[in-house]
Amino acid sequence: MTLVILGVFYATMALAGYAVELLFGAAGLVPTTRNATVLHPSITWDFTTILNLVFFVLVGALVWRFFRTGGRQMLGMMGGAPSGAGASPPADEHNNHHHH
Hints:
mainly alpha; flat
């Protein structure tokens, strides 16, 4: 089912992109000349690079803490259905729900 949804979404996006290309071409909105200028032809260090590195370290610390404090075991416990799944609730629990 997942692959069907993936295929439908991919086909929808591809067809939408093609439709936009055709509509823009028909309306004459596609430029015929390209006047692009490359501002930084090399890799530079700026504030966004520093922020990326800081948050990369922060994410690494949080992932490390997650695994050090038993996060993997917690995810393992969450992976299945509770014991007795599908069974009806005990009679006393069912009768204790009063609605006023």
